[in-house]
Design a protein that fits this description.
The protein is an alpha+beta fold. The chain is built from 13 helices and 18 strands. Residues 10-29, 57-65 and 386-395 have low confidence and may be disordered.
């Protein structure tokens, strides 16, 4: 049958063939094996330490202010193998080992040495290898044997792992599980646009970092810097003034060390060595980071003035193990107390001199406590160094914006009563509605059931008094307004 006859009978005409560019031919001899997958550009070794995982936050991304001490020790050991070490607090560590494999005689040897170092440090770590940092971390968190060296095999190795290894927020994990998504393979098969619309852009970016489609920038671990210097004297010194003058060269080195790093110190340890007696240790605690040699010399001299040396001193050593950022202080336009002027720098110097002379326990600050009882609403707290002060657990007092006297009596003073009204060198005039406080019933002897009033005596002094709610309904003076 001709083409014209087929067209008349309704047959579909033939379509011209579309020519596509041919793929380049790869000629391989008969019997030769297929080409191996291309090696990855990076190779990450991840360590997961389950003993550091918080029980309540194990399924969430945890980012505390500082890494645990054991994790820092592991990071210091890891720097023997590669300079690219990154902390993932509270229980993870990452090493980029691509350039270190040949130096240690192969990947297996490097893997064994790092595993042995972790065991020697007391860490029961799960190790994993992957071309991306997040994939290695996910493999280590799974607790399974996870060693992937080529990017082409990465998605297949990640597919059976549970989605919880990514440490996404619990509500997001629950939403994925409700729609039947429990593994990384099932997550990676979801449509990208729909996933981003329902679960957010950040989880999608994490999936891209997981499989190597997005850059994963990690902050490198830096070992904490320390200062330690020792000076041996030409002859033994007995006078503390001579010892402080001899320490001037060490303090000058310390000041130069801090100036180059724009840092200060809040704790300085001085160790004095004797011929036969144990070393004398003098510790200087500071309220604010300091880096000035003259200031450190003056404070150290005050601190050492009370030392009793068992023997003459042969050598001295200064050391500080923690550096704090040093923020230059600008002078205020107004003097303290004028037009809202703040505290002056002399207040810090005064506190430090008092602590040096009287002891750190004799000088303390006050902090707000979560209690409605006035006598328990404040507690003594240590003075924290500037720059390291943490936010108080109590953002605002539990009593809100109610007026309180600044001066509370150490113990409430009983008041006399006449015709049902309190007296104190005359009748007291009540100036406010009662404020009821009922608290402390859960503590033995701490229960308080009172009605507080603001009152004025015959001399015009404003007082804070209360009346017991339980019989015999006595009156007490508890505070005085300024």
């Amino acid at each position: 049958m001709s083409l014209h006859e087929k067209a008349r009978r309704g047959a579909r005409p033939l379509q011209p063939a579309v020519q596509r560019p041919l793929a380049p031919l790869t000629v391989r001899p008969r019997g030769a094996p297929a080409a191996a997958p291309a090696p990855s550009r990076e190779l990450w070794l991840a360590a997961h330490v389950p003993q550091l995982t918080p029980a309540a936050d194990a399924a969430q991304e945890h980012a505390p202010e500082s890494a645990p001490e054991l994790l820092v020790r592991l990071a210091l050991l890891a720097q023997r193998f590669t300079p690219k070490v990154s902390l993932v607090p509270p229980d993870g560590l990452l090493l980029e080992v691509k350039g270190s494999v040949r130096l240690y005689g192969g990947l297996a040897a490097l893997y064994r040495r790092f595993r042995d170092d972790c065991s020697a440090a007391g860490a029961r770590a799960h190790l994993a290898l992957a071309p991306t940092a997040l994939a290695a971390l996910a493999g280590a968190r799974s607790g399974r044997t996870f060693r992937v060296l080529e990017e082409a095999r990465l998605i297949g190795a990640l597919a059976p792992l549970p989605v919880t290894v990514l440490r996404w927020p619990a509500p997001l994990i629950e939403r994925l599980q409700r729609v039947g998504v429990r593994t990384l393979g099932e997550v990676l098969r979801l449509p990208r646009a729909g996933f981003a619309r329902r679960f957010g852009v950040q989880p999608l970016a994490a999936l891209d970092r997981l499989v190597g489609r997005g850059a994963d920038l990690r902050q490198s671990f830096r070992a904490p810097e320390q200062f330690c210097a020792r000076h041996s004297f030409l002859y033994e010194l007995e006078s503390l003034d001579s010892i402080v003058r001899a320490l001037g060269s060490l303090l000058a080195k310390l000041a130069d060390f801090l100036r180059r790093r724009q840092c200060g110190i809040t704790r300085l340890e001085c160790r004095l060595t004797h011929a036969h007696a144990p070393a004398t240790v003098c510790v200087l605690e500071l309220v604010a980071p300091a880096a000035n040699a003259q200031r450190l010399t003056a404070l150290l001299s005050e601190r050492m003035s009370g030392l009793a040396l068992p023997e003459p001193v042969r050598a001295a050593e200064l050391s500080c193990t923690e550096l704090a950022p040093l923020e230059p202080q600008a002078g205020a336009l107004w003097q303290p107390g004028e037009h809202g002027g703040g505290t002056c720098p002399e207040s810090t110097d005064l506190i430090e001199r008092l602590r040096v002379r009287l002891g750190a326990e004799a000088v303390y600050g006050l902090a707000i406590a979560a209690s409605h009882r006035p006598e328990a609403a404040s507690i003594c707290a240590p003075i924290r160094p500037a720059g390291r002060a943490r936010k108080s657990a109590v953002d605002s007092p539990p009593w809100g914006r109610l007026r309180r006297p600044l001066w509370l009596l150490e113990s409430p003073e009983p008041l006399t009563e006449s015709d049902g009204l309190p007296w104190r060198d005359g009748p007291l005039h009540l100036k406010s509605e009662p404020e009821r406080i009922e608290s402390g019933w859960w503590e033995a002897g701490g229960e308080a059931a009172r009605d507080y009033y603001r009152a004025v005596d015959a001399q015009g002094v404003r007082l804070w008094i209360y009346r017991e709610r339980e019989p015999p309904h006595r009156w007490f003076l508890h505070g005085v307004f300024g």
